[in-house]
Amino acid sequence: MSLTNTIKKILVKNPEGLSPREIVEIIKERYPELYGTVSHRSNVEKGDYSDVNHALTAQIYAASRSGSFEVDRSQTPLKLRVTGSSNEESPDDDVLFAEDIDKIEAGIGTLYTLGTSLYTSTFHNCVSK
Predict the structure, then answer these.
(1) Domain spans of the chain?
(2) In 10 A of CB 124, how many CB atoms?
(3) Phi and psi angles of residue 104, each rounded to the nearest 5 degrees, phi first
């Protein structure tokens, strides 16, 4: 599960809002796979952050700017809440990307093709048939 989805899940269970430090403590306790990641350790080794807690806190602050969360800056430390449209729990990442290439090749599932808005006569002939 991604960090943003994990934060949403935590905040849904705490509608009064939580500070980034409180979120860090919950992640350490309940989602240890998201704490002390390779990225966190590498940023600490490079001297970008003093410790893993600060690296994760910085990631939470960055996620708060994504628009997925309501940020209450009227108090210190700031509090994050789930926005009204995100109040229901998000599905796990595994559910979102459940289709695999073998199923798609067998004709089972959905394959989305993104176009480039490029128009050629050959393409038009293929589509109109």
Answers:
(1) 3-88, 94-128
(2) 10
(3) -65, -45
Site of tokens 């989602």: 31
- Containing 128, the helix (H) or strand (E) segment is helix 121-128
To the question of pTM greater than 0.70 for the whole model, the response is: no
Q: How far from 77 is each of 6, 17, 100, CA to CA, in Å?
A: 20, 11, 43
Alpha-carbon distance of 104 to 124, in angstroms, equals 25
Dump pLDDT digits (tens) for 22-61.
999 999 999 999 999 999 999 999 999 999 999 999 999 9
CATH architecture observed for domain 3-88: Orthogonal Bundle (1.10)
Residue 91 — pLDDT band, cuts 50, 70, 90? very low
- Helix 20-30 with 3-12: angle, nearest 10 deg: 100
Q: Tokens representing 27?
A: 């992640």
Q: For the chain, give percent helix, strand, coil, nearest 5.
A: 50, 5, 45
Cβ burial of 14 (10 Å; 0-12, 13-18, 19+) is: middle
